Amino acid sequence: MRCFRRSHLALLFGLAPTLAIPARGQERVPAEAHPDASAAAPAPPLPSPGAVADSSTDPDASPLPPVLDEGFGAVAAIEAPPREVTRRTVDAELIQKIPGTSGDAVRSIEVLPGVARTSLDAGDPILRGAAWNDTVTYIDGAYVPYIFHIGGVKSAFNSRLVERVELYPGNFSARYGRAMGGIIDVKPRAPRTDRPHALVELSVLDSMALVEAPLSDDTAVAFAGRRSNIDFFFEQFVPEDAYAVTAAPLYWDYQGLVTHRLGAGHTLRVVASGSHDSMRLFLSNPSDLDPALRGNLEFASAYHLGLVSLDSELSPQVEQRLQLSLGTFNGSTRLGPLVSEFDFLIGGARAEWSVDVSRAVRMNLGLDAELIQIFGSYQGPPPPQSEGDPALQPLSTLDTLRVEDTFYLARPAAYAEAELRPTGRVLLVPGVRVDHYGELAAATVDPRLTARLEATGATTVKGGAGVFSQPPIYYEFVEGVGNPDLEPSRALHTSAGVEQRLGNDVRVGLEGFYKRLTHRVVATEGLVPPRFVNDGVGRIYGAELSAQYRTERTFAFLAYTWSRSERRDRSDGWRLFELDQPHILAITASRSLGRGWEVGGRMRVVSGNPYTPIAGAVYDAGADGYVPFSVRQFSARNPVFHQLDVRVEKAWHLRGLELAVYLDVMNAYNAKNQEGLDYSFDYTERESYSGLPITPNLGLRAEL
Amino acid sequence: MSPTTLPRRSLVAVLALAAAACGEPLKSPQLLEEPRVIGARVEVDGEPLRATPAPGEGATARLLVGYPGAPAAMTSALVLCPCLPTATGVPTCAGPPYAVLVTATPTPAAPALHFTLPDAAAMVGLDRALLLALLCPEGVPQLGASLIESHCSAAGVRPLRASLEILLFRDGAENRNPDLDAASVTLDGEPWRPAPATAVAGATCAGEASLPVVAAGSGEHQFALALASSDREETPSENPLDPPREAIQLSFLTTAGALAHPYAVVEAAATDAVVEIAWEAPAEAAAGGEIARVYFVARDFRGGVGWAERALCIAP
Predict the structure, then answer these.
(1) A285 neighbourhood in chain B, CB within 8 Å
(2) What is the pLDDT of residues A353-388, one digit of tens each?
(3) Test the B interface: residue of A334, A375, A618 with most B CBs within 10 Å
(4) In which residue ranges of chain A is pLDDT below 70?
(5) Vertex B64 angle, CA B62 and B68, to 5°
(6) Are B87 and A527 inside 8 Å of each other by CB?
(7) How many CB atoms neighbour CB A553 within 10 A?
(8) Which residue out of A138, A288, A373, A440 would a mutagenesis test of the B interface target, given it has the greatest number of B Cβ atoms within 10 Å?
(9) Could you tell me if the ipTM is greater than 0.85?
């Protein structure tokens, strides 16, 4: 049987033993069956812990060697080739060490190639030139409506409970759908089972506490809670008479994990997660720049998610995973004339069966369903095109819609994949996914193919192609706001690359990709009804270079991406994607100096984001505002972005208690990176504004 | 798909705008430092307070241009045309213009265009007309296919471009211009009469004895404007979410001194229609005093516009 997941490798190689829960696809072999491990087939070198894995294939993993049960529940596992062309992971140990990310799991993916730099709360991560809404984020396979707290510095799932973050920048398996960009899957870890543990962490940004413990030989639990600290000092930075802070920016989140072994070959896992963000300001007088901005300016969002998973070995040849999720999401905004309130009830169900038909053939069959109820109340300007709208026009000059409605989304899907090994060194994964979108009365069929060739023991050549479909954003097809006759958008992904291992410590990868987007949802000219149509196309191409060096005390990554991402809206000419970044270079390194000292740095040099230069403005006498116009969308570019982040930590180990102090400094040399331009009310004057200045985050951590 | 992205992006805009409000603005919208169009309105023939002409009716479209000093002589072009429906961006004509007036000889007079709308048969399906204006401090207007493509003939001259969507009177639904002539305006609690045309901004106070006087460096003063109750019309609508009454947005502009803020809004639900705004006198004034003009412009968000002008003398 083959292993399809990295099964607690980080825990195996550095932390306490864990529950002996084999990953799916691994065969458990009692130690007595291999009395002399050296007499067994030689095990290939295992990846080091805390590694950034780049979907490398272990050349000796064919056929998949068995899992060796080494007692005490510790499990050695070999990762099988992935079902995707490219899967990149950042795991638990590494997450905490990447400078400039404050130990955030999802932010840590910025060290990987193909991930664009995003500025303050610009949205979900941008993968291989795909728009923010083309990438879907999951927690262990369950959809979450958003992953970042206000400001985009911290993700809403506590990183101390994350085993790894899996990133699929494109060409992903048929088990994922409803996205034509990429997939980010945050994998919670299992609670530790050796003994009770507690952790308290205090920093400038937030404070958190975590407890975990075994309840029995078969059950372990973990709970965590976190709250931001920004509100304690936010008002110190508000200039007098600018506005009143009714409620300073605040976030909190909580997680609960339970792992229970029901019996031989059956493991139940329960994940509960919730998050809240809010802020309220009061402008006693309308803003000088936009009279529509006045009074209460409020934002609040929250979600609560429950997820139950059951992993089972039904037989030596058949594995099963069942998963149910249920969550609520509430979001409200008041922003001058824009008043919106949305309540979501999101139900999800997944089932996957993996069947070893023969030694060379494995079938994966799955079902994936979403059922969503949305109640929405909206008053405000017509929502703009999700990507490519420069958003330059004051709210006061826009028309106002008023809509209230309840609607349902039913999205069942089924998929099938075959893992074919015609030879020991070739893996072919043809698959197909069928999605139905009840709200659109439409179905899509997405064929996909992945191929891998282990050319030598250290070299893997890979490639793939596939079709990926995606429904419109809910407001794009709601009657009264959007166009109920929209169709799903589609993308064709192609990619090819090579992975090379140089000794035990160095891995290098090179991959090229091309994507073609069709049926993109774009706004009509002037946003007149039906407001949105499927007339947009896009093309994205590029190459990614990654290099990783890893020893026991040092890790270093280099990620360079060259790409071009373009769109064409309606019958217009080609334009740049609003976050097109032709060059993205990130160099990250960290080293343990001994005696509890750890230092690290991350240097990024990235092309500036495009912007739309203003050619002039027309005075709207009915609204007393100026409507800008431009010659060509996104035809100018901000200067090159460059930033150094550094991290220093000192830890003490005192009889079962670990104490640590760390300082994580974003933008260590206070670079003034232009993020955009501010304009005067009539667009005749402008000045640049910069991103975050030097931002230190000092923290203290105590762990039992 | 992220249901939060639209509001979260809006939140970023809020923080950015709030931050902009914190620091020094690039230019202050309430201070007239150069000629600007600061208002436009339509007055139906015989009913100057009605802003919604019906097909076949005549009306006059007037611009209000503010100057930091004496009105400057400019050339202009005014175009009235059917309005192409749009929710965003610069409005454009949906067809040939109904009326065009090009004033090629520079004049300080406020631009105005008298027009007669086509009859109903020629305006089927149209609910609004569009006024486009191009003013040239130098040279003459060169009209293009759109207002964006229209320029002044003098090289390097930045034209003043303005637009006004004009709702048409249909099915008994009309809209009136706010009547600031009937509004009560006070300066520090004292009645403040309309400014005579002879009281030119920046000129000395000699010969303008009727103007109220404030001393340079005298600190903060209070302007107050009380709208007539009829200015906020009822707005019956089939959509229960629509407000039942108009809100009025007031804009304040001055040629000297500093207004506390450029805008105020009398919300639809407000019971009190008195708006007060603080104005700080300049620290100095020329010998002989200096005249400052103050503009109050009211908008009802449905194309109805009204304005009032006042003047005062800043004594040294």
Answers:
(1) 260-261, 263-264
(2) 999 999 999 999 999 999 999 998 988 888 889 888
(3) A618
(4) 1-81, 120-123, 235-247, 391
(5) 155
(6) yes
(7) 11
(8) A288
(9) yes
